[in-house]
Amino acid sequence: MAVIALVNNSLRVEAKNIKRKNVSTVIIQSNLSNRNYMKKVEKAFKNPNIKSVYVYDYSLLKSDDDSFGNDVVKNVNKLGTSLKAAPLTRTVNVKNKPDYIGKEVLAKAIGEPGDTLGISKTKSVTRTYSISTTFGNKTSWINNISAAVGYNIAKSDSMNISGSRKIPSKVGKKKVKEMHYKAYAIYQVKSYDLQINRGRKWEKCGSGTAKRAYGIKFQHEYIYKK
Q: How many Cα atoms sit within 13 Å of 204 on the Cβ side?
């Protein structure tokens, strides 16, 4: 699969050019709070070979929550001089993992040839996390993990989902019956290990992952006439 990246109105082409038949995905970096990014999505989908458009907004990863628990991080990762001063639990080995495309359809539209399908809504996307341990309590781990990954894992992010697509009557030699236009959340994923302090010795007691939405995948699917 060839990929084309559209960044700030300019093309960074990883395939030789957008007209190649094997090009099926376009990547856009934009501000999702500004619905003008829809024009870039429309431009990408003018190529009938494009099946998916990924829109990333890295500013969503740099919110005020990024300062969450800075003091806690320092304390969590440093043992005190006495057992009493040492933290009982901590989150370590935080690693970035491949992005995850959510299974929930955030917005969708269905239409017939000649229609211009539009998606325009604001959606609250919940951040997700996992805690695979029986030690400690949930609230404590939420604060602990939030401090380690750099944001509050128990909050949500508001995303403006906007896009449109005109439905052609034909794609190649195939006659189009209808088209389904859908939007999914793209999540940044971080993994981590959970540890508990057993008298100055740290032992792994679990692990988990945290997911935070920072992009939207637009996808269309044609239903052809028989």
A: 8
